[in-house]
């Protein structure tokens, strides 16, 4: 009997006690997020069901949180357009996560790369399995990352460690991610979801208004991304997209080889 094909990309949702559990599922592509998954995340966090006190965002299975944006099989000039479109949807999803009326916790089992790591950074905090690996390969692909997303990393890690993450593209294991503040807690892989559910249960013990007010106060104490900073980043982004380095970086990534920047 022939094997069943892997399920298509989707966001698996379920209410578990006080938590809304969201699992990114695209198993044939390492849980990469497509437009439909990003839109589903946005919708889910904008209006959690009544009684939900926290959202747990993870990946399907234990090998991948998510490999990032799913660029499909697009080639050539259309690839930059596809990436820009994906970045815009990612920006909407991360903004929705940050504005969610209840805390959102990233549950990182396995690999989290690129745009998927930005989804995690937008959450209130991150719990990772001790087997997790996290990375930001944008510069290795010849891409300057979007300013809203980069700002989240700088706010979380500080400038020096954000530079290390972005400029080297080197993945961090769970221990290093904890050391630099990329994740907030590391637990054995077998205990990951139990730890996440316990965090949701702990939040449910606190007053809903106090939780909402504290989150709003912390957000208000973080400075906004002003127009001057945005202009600097956007100028460099346009320059990178117009460069042959962008084409070479993505080609090298797909061909699993080192890029030739000459």
Topology diagram in text:
Layout: E1 10-16, E2 19-25, H1 35-46, E3 54-59, E4 64-66, H2 77-98, E5 104-108, E6 111-113, H3 115-122, E7 125-129, E8 133-135, H4 147-157, H5 159-168, E9 172-173, H6 174-180, E10 185-187, H7 192-204, H8 208-220, H9 227-242, H10 244-254
Parallel strand pairs: 2-3, 3-5, 4-6, 5-7, 6-8, 7-10
Antiparallel strand pairs: 1-2, 8-9
Helix pairs in contact: 1-2, 2-3, 4-5
Mean pLDDT: 90
| Topology as a string of helices (H) and strands (E) | EEHEEHEEHEEHHEHEHHHH
Radius of gyration: 18 Å
Oligomeric state: single chain
Strand content: 15-25%
> What is the makeup of the main sheet?
6 strands, mixed
Outline: globular
Number of distinct beta strands: 10
The H-level CATH homologous superfamily of the domain at 10-189, spelled out, is 2-enoyl-CoA Hydratase, Chain A, domain 1
Describe this structure in words.
By secondary structure, the chain is α/β, with parallel strands linked by helices. It is 47% helix and 17% strand. It contains ten helices and ten strands. Helix 1 links the parallel strand 2 (19-25) and strand 3 (54-59). The longest helix has 22 residues, at 77-98. The model is unreliable at 1-5 (pLDDT under 50).
